[in-house]
Automatic annotation (TrEMBL):
SUPFAM superfamilies: SMAD/FHA domain. It comes from Struthidea cinerea. Its main location: cytoplasm. InterPro entries: FHA_dom (IPR000253), SMAD_FHA_dom_sf (IPR008984), TIFA (IPR033621). CDD domains: FHA_TIFA (cd22714). One of its GO terms (biological process) is positive regulation of canonical NF-kappaB signal transduction. It is found in: Cytoplasm. This is TRAF-interacting protein with FHA domain-containing protein A. It holds the Pfam family FHA. The gene is Tifa. Keywords: Cytoplasm, Immunity, Innate immunity. Residues 49-121 form the FHA domain. One of its GO terms (cellular component) is cytoplasm.
Length: 189
């Protein structure tokens, strides 16, 4: 056997991609303490906290309107499955946090969808989970958006705008009836 054949199998690592946006980021530089474009390992038993208190938060936002601890992300494995997820908890007493239009008050928490938009104040964060197998740690990969995320991305959570045909009957009407739309010659009407 060669050393290649005897080498341990590499396991993939769950990676949480976070893309940050704030309308005043160029003037106020509130993201200057974040490490963009480089993956960072976080132990699975650590809670990743975001806020302005650098002694408590791993990810610092340099803005007096951000709470000392704004929110946290906890890595976990779902019960009776091998699926890894994140839980997001609002730790701000003053600011509500929204995750895909679900509003979280102080100490409220939910499972983070695999792709979602997190908002508080003027901050928008696109979160995307890349699945992995490692139980010991996960990675974060931070990005900076130049344009507002809510306008730039089309997510399943946001209502989609579908064109309405001239006859006023939506294609989803046929699908809910169990029928597929058929083409009709306008002379047959």
């Amino acid at each position: 056997m060669t050393s290649f054949e005897e080498a341990a199998t590499e396991e993939t690592v769950t990676c949480l991609h976070l893309t940050f946006y704030h309308p005043c980021q160029d003037e106020k530089m509130m993201f200057r303490c974040l490490n963009f474009c480089k993956r960072e390992q976080v132990r699975a038993d650590e809670t990743a906290k975001f806020g302005r208190d650098s002694s408590v938060c791993r990810y610092n936002l340099m803005d007096t309107r951000v709470s000392r601890i704004q929110f946290s992300l906890q890595f976990f494995r779902k019960l009776h499955t091998s699926e890894y997820c994140f839980e997001i908890k609002n730790l701000s007493k003053k600011t509500k946090l929204t995750v895909n239009q679900t509003e979280l008050g102080y100490l409220n928490k939910i499972d983070l969808p695999w792709k979602c938009i997190i908002c508080f104040g003027d901050y928008q964060i696109l979160a995307e989970i890349q699945e992995g197998e490692s139980m010991d740690y996960f990675e974060t990969h931070l990005h900076l958006a130049e344009a507002p995320i809510l306008q730039e991305r089309c997510l399943p959570c946001l209502p989609s705008l579908q064109p309405i045909p001239e006859n006023g009957i939506s294609p989803t009407f046929f699908l809910s009836q169990g029928k597929s739309p058929t083409e009709i010659d306008e002379n047959e009407l």
